[in-house]
Structures are given as structure tokens and as C-alpha cells.
Amino acid sequence: MAGKSGNRLKRFLIPVSGGLAGLVVLGALQISEHASAAPPKQPEGTDIAAGQRLYAEYCASCHGANLEGQENWQIANEDGIFPAPPHDRSGHTWHHGDALLFTYTKLGGKGAMAAQGLDFESGMPEFGETLSDQQIWEILAYIKSTWDDRVREMQAVRTEAEQLRGN
């Protein structure tokens, strides 16, 4: 089974584009290698319909009603903050595993970066005080439900890699 998993990882791991933004997100949001608990992972049976309602209420104002994100999301604004990226296939959400997506949503961009010892301004607010962990997972489940099978599988491989690394 381990061999099959490894082949699956090699088959679907692709480089993340987006220049500095991609490097910052991938490098800075890794959960500590010294963490004793397993990384968070999408729970079974998450309510996608609830996630869609929560997305509309808490996320669509920045990320778009159709998950399209803001214009020029790969280019920092004059204040150095990147616009909200799309969560559809054209964005990079699916380039990240569940732990990273959950942590970034719960702590916000600045908080997730600070947890890694980095000072980084982000337009992504923290939702840990507003939404329960279950509600965050429901939003992420809704977002994933909009992706085609290939994109969902590639994202699942990234989640599997996070779990194997323990971060």
C-alpha cells in the first residue's frame, strides 16, 4: 500500500506557480515539524450545503460568489497585500493540503504566518473566533465540492503528503 501511495504522490505533485506569493504560502504555512498532534484533516460527512451557506455569508464578499476571487489576485496592492485569490480551479487553493487550508482560515493570513515566526501582512482575516472548527471544515468541503475530480484528487494527494510528513 505504501508503494501505491508514493506513486500517487509523485504522479500528482506539481509545482506551485505565483512567484513570491506561492513561495510564501507554501514555505511559511507549514505546520511545525515538532507538533505532537496529527495535522488537521477534513472530517468525514461534512455538510456541504451548510458550507455553501457559510461561504456566502463569510467568504463571498472577498473571494466572490462564484469562487472567482478578486482581479489581479497574483499582484500585491500598493499596501503590499495581495487581493483575495479565487477558490475555483484557476486559483491555488487546491494546491494546498487540508491542514494548511484549515490553519490559514482559522488563524488568518497574519496569524498563520506569525505561528511560523514570520511577520507578513495578509488581507485574510482570522475566523477562529467567528466560526467553529466544524463550520470552517464545512466551508472547505463546499469549496472542494466545486472542483472536478482531477483537481480534488490532486488536493487529496497534498493532504496525504501533509499527513505523512506530520505537518
What is the count of DSSP helices, taking H or I runs of 4+ residues?
A: 7
Strand tally: 0
Averaging pLDDT over every residue, what do you get?
Answer: 82
Strand content: under 5%
What structural class do helix, strand and pairing data support? mainly alpha
Biggest sheet descriptor: none
Query: What is the distance, rounded to the nearest whole angstrom, between the alpha carbons of the first and last residues?
Result: 21 Å
**Order of helical and strand elements:** HHHHHHH
Helix content: 40-55%
Outline type: globular
Unreliable spans: 1-36
What would you report as the Rg, rounded to the nearest angstrom? Answer: 15 Å
How would you explain this protein's 3D organization?
- By secondary structure, this protein is mainly alpha-helical.
- It has a domain at 67-167.
- Helices cover 50% and strands 0% of the residues.
- It is built from seven helices and no strands.
- It has helices spanning 2-12, 19-28, 48-58, 60-63, 98-114, 133-145, 149-165.
- α3 (48-58) crosses α6 and α5 packs across α6 (133-145).
- The longest helix has 17 residues, at 98-114.
- The model is unreliable at 1-36 (pLDDT under 50).
